Amino acid sequence: MKENVELVFEICVVIPKREAILKGDEDFDCGNVFARELKNAGLVVDRVIGNSDEFFKVAAPLETLGRAAAELRIMKRTHIGMDLQFDMVEVDAFVKQPDGSLFSWYERFQCYCHLMHGIVNNSKSSRILKFNRREIRWEVGEHLLPKLESEIIIKQIFPLHDDKIRKKLLKTWALQWWDFTTQPVDEIYAYYGSKIAIYFAFLGMYTQWLLFPAVVGLIVYFIDYGSANLVVLPAFFIAVILWAIMFSQFWKRKNAALLARWPITYGNAVDEEYKVVGMKGNAQPRQNPMDLIKLLEADRVKGKKVFTKYEWFNHLLRIRNDALIIISIICLQLPFELAYAHLYEVLNKDIIKFGLTAIYLATIQYITKLGGKVSVKLIMFEHNENPETRADSLVYKVFGLYFMQTYIGIFYHALLHRNFGTLRKVLIQRLLISEVVQNLIETSLPYINYNYKKYAVRQNKEKEEKGSAGTFQFTSRVEKEFLKASYTASTGEELEDGLFDDFLELALQFGMILMFACAFPPAFAMSALNNIMEIRTDALKLLAMMKRPVPRASATVGAWLNIFQFLILMSICTNCALLAWLFDEEGKWKIEPGLVVILIMEHALLLIKFGFSRLVPAEPAWVRAARAKNSSQARDMYTKRLLRTISGGEKTRELKKIE
C-alpha cells in the first residue's frame, strides 16, 4: 500500500503559549504529552511557536489513514461499482479520487477525527499533566482531546490550507475572469469536499442559464411594443417559467453526472460518531436506532409499540417546532413587514424611501438571524436520522422566516396598491442592497476581522516586549491562518457552514426575479452580473480570507432544490396575478377573454411543471448504463463465488462419505 505523495500537514491544533517549563516537568507538560500521544497514534507532528500561541500541525501517512479507515469501516467505491468496507490488504480494489489520492478530503478528515479522539489513558492509574503550573488529572480510560478542550487548554482545531493547491486554485479559479462561468469543479471537490464543489457547480450552471432570460428581459424592457405589451409580457412570463422548470430538471442530470464521476460514499455513519464542526469531542444527542432494533428482536410486540411511539414522537416534535416558527412569523414578523410596506407607500421622496429600505433591511436581518438561531435550538431537540436531515429541517424553518422578510412587502405593493412604478423601484432597491451591498459585506468583513485580530496580537506582543528593538512581524503562515475567520453560517456552526447563507442568498434572488418577472424583466440581467461576481468573490473568500472549511457529507443540494421548486410554483401564481391586474386596469375583475387566457395559462404551466420531470430523465443514460453494468458484474461475481462455495461443500461431504 504505497502511494508516492508528499506528506501534507492538514490539521492544526492551537494551545496558548506557556510560561517557561520547569526543569523536570517536561514529561508532564500538556503540550509535550499531547504531541507524544499524536506520534504514538501514527501521526506526524510539527510544532510552531507563534507570538501568543503554540501550533501543532498534524499530518497522517497513508498507512495511518488506511488503518483508521479500516477501524471506522468506511465504505468506499470499488472498480465494479459496489461500495464495500475499506480493507488495507485489498487496497487496489478501490477507486481513487479524481486527483489520484486514495482517500477524499472528507474521508481523511474523519480519519483525523478518529485518531485524535482515540487517544485514551490506557495506563493502570491516572496521570498528572501540567500546564502553566496547573495540575490536571488524566483519568484511566479518559479521552485526552475532550479533556484538554474542557480545561480550555486546546483553543481551537481547524483544517489547514495546502499552500501549493491554494495558489493553483487562486490562479485557475478565483482570479480567472475571462471564462466567467467555467470552474475547475473536480479540483474544488478534491480540495474542499463534495458539498462546496456541488454548490459552485450549481452556482456556475445557474449563472450560465441566467444569460438567456437576461438578454430576453433587456429586450422586452427597453423596446417599446406599445399595445403589444399585453402580448409580449405573457410570452416572456411563459418563457422564464419554462426556463426555470428546465433548469431544475437539467440540474438533477448534472448532479447525477457529478456523483457518477466522483466516488462518493457516505453510507458509514461516521458523522454520527463525531460532531463534525470543529472536531468537538461530544456527539450530538440522538436516539440510537440499534437499541430499538435489539428491543424489536427480543420482544416483537413491545418493540413495535416502542418503534411506533418513537416515530410519532419525532413527527410531533417537528410539527411543534414548525408551528412555533409559523406563529412567530404571523405574530412578530408580519406586522413589522406590513408597517414598513405602508410607510414606503405613503412617503414621497425617493431618498427617504431608500434610507427607510436600508434601515429596514438592517433591522430585519438581525431579527431573522435571531429567529434562525432559535430554529437551531429547536432542531437540536428533534430526533433527526442524520446531520443531513437536521440541516434540511433548518433550511425549511429559516427559509420561512426569510421568505416573509423578503417578499411580503413586495406582495403588498404588487397586489394591494397595484402600482407598477412603485413595485419596480422596490425591486431595484432590494436587488441593489441585497446583492451589491451583501457582496461588499461578505468580502470586506472577513478582511477587516483578520486585520483587527492581527492588530490585537501585535499590541499585546508590544506590551509584553516593551523597550525591545525591532519591528514586529508574523513569521509563520499557520498563525496567519489561525487569525482568519471560520466559514460558518449566520445561524451558528452547530448544523451548517457558510454555504447555508450562500444558498439562502441564491434562493431569495431566484424567487425575487422569477416571482415578479413581468414587473421588472431586467432583474435577470442584474442577477446574472451579480452571480458572475459572486463566483469569483466566493472563491476568493474561501481561498484567501477564511480558514479552510471543515468538509461535510453531501451528495446533492438537499432541501434547497425543493425550495427552488416551491418558488417556481409561487412564480406561476404571482405572475398570473400581475398579468390579470394589467388586463383589469379598472379593478372590476370581470371575466374577459384576456383574464380567461391567463387562468388557462396558469393551469397549463402547473401541468407542465409536474409533467416535465417525466419527459426529461433525472439521470443521463450513460449514468444508468454504467450502474446497470456494475450491478451485472457484481451479481456475476457473487453468483460464481456462491456456486464455488456450494460445490466445494458438496465435494467435501462426498469425500467424507467415501472415507
UniProtKB/TrEMBL annotation:
Keywords: Membrane, Transmembrane, Transmembrane helix. Residues 188-629 form the Anoctamin transmembrane domain. Coiled coil: none annotated. One of its GO terms (cellular component) is membrane. GO terms for molecular function: chloride channel activity. Its main location: membrane. InterPro entries: Anoctamin, Anoctamin_TM. It is a multi-pass membrane protein. It is found in: Membrane. The chain crosses the membrane at residues 196-223, 229-251, 323-342, 354-372, 393-415, 506-532, 553-583, 595-612. This is Anoctamin transmembrane domain-containing protein. The lineage of its organism: Eukaryota, Viridiplantae, Streptophyta, Embryophyta, Tracheophyta.
